[in-house]
Amino acid sequence: MAWRIFLTLIACGSMMACNSDNANAVKVNTTPEPVQSESVEAQPVDDSLSESESESESESESEILTQSVPEPECDLESVNLLDFVPWQREEGWWVGEYTFLGADGDPNVSASWPYRYDHYRGFIHLEVIGNSIKQRNVFLYPAKNSSECDSVEDVVGSGICGDNGNEKVFSADQSASDCDGNLSGPFEAFGMTLSTTTTLIGDDTVLYQVRLPDGSFTQNQLTTLPPNDTRVRTAQGFFMGASTYASYYRERKVTKEEFVQLLEETRQEYNILELDYCGYDSGGSPSNVSCDEHFGVALGN
């Protein structure tokens, strides 16, 4: 089914600058003209009323002058995302426990990726560079249950069904879309350009959205950032308005050394062949990159 191409989208608004319309303010004469009349006796002046009117006129003129001053434009190139608390928390190395559910609420079953989605693991490096974020992931999947194998060749690569797990890589990049820490960026997948936006909601909540070329959304993902170097993400997937999947990710921040160690331990636990390390892209096709090339740093394996 067509919606399956979006099952691997995870991640980690439209381009908006902090511009304000520069309306041409018109200064009006707020002082009333004197009323002309014949034989009018002089009336006593109410000092308090005159004072109030004067203050009102002054405030009105001040508001007009304030409105006429344009807000400074947002220089996207000068944005430093590390000025924002959520990006300070999100930058770094992450290890996660994942559960991925299909439209029926059961663990997802993929026709093209014959591995388990009930419990699998993810390893993510999120790097903040000035006004941009670079995210590189590798997801590790346990072998399919032997009882569910149609044949020992029901695998991707050279493994054996029910014996060997496997792994996929994923990449995503975004840049500042305004001066408030929000992001946007295109994502190329299967001949289509999808738009992604990330919106900060306070210091502990991030909303990530992916939309199809027609503008309809295919994913809404909420990230919660408790102040303890953990994060929890839940995503809802859609295709043509119908719910297609849901995910539940529990992640913790680690050092690079812990990242490498836990990655190797999980590979051993899932019995993943070395030939398959970082071997497949989000669509299950050969990635044609090494892990070091994918992450842009030497991982020592």
What do you see in this structure?
The chain has helices at residues 47-67, 85-90, 256-269, 291-295, and strands at 92-102, 120-129, 132-141, 166-176, 183-189, 192-200, 205-211, 217-224, 230-239, 242-254. With 301 residues, it is α+β, with helices and mostly antiparallel strands. The protein has one domain. The longest helix is centred in the N-terminal third of the chain and has 21 residues, at 47-67. The chain starts with 46 loop residues before the first helix and ends in a 6-residue tail after the last helix.
In a nutshell, what does this entry contain?
By secondary structure, this protein is an alpha+beta fold. It contains 4 helices and 10 strands; from the N terminus they run H-H-E-E-E-E-E-E-E-E-E-E-H-H.
Helix-strand makeup class: alpha+beta
Instruction: Output the strand order for the largest sheet.
Output: 1-2-3-4-5-6-7-8-9-10
Shape: globular
Mean pLDDT: 82
Q: Helicity, in percent?
A: 10-25%
What is the N-to-C order of secondary-structure elements (H for helix, E for strand)? HHEEEEEEEEEEHH
Number of helices: 4
The low-confidence parts are 1-46, 48-52
Largest sheet: 10 strands, antiparallel, barrel
How many strand units? 10
Task: Quickly count the domains.
Answer: 1
From the N-terminal CA to the C-terminal CA, the straight-line distance is 36 Å
Rg (CA only): 29 Å
Beta content comes to: 25-35%
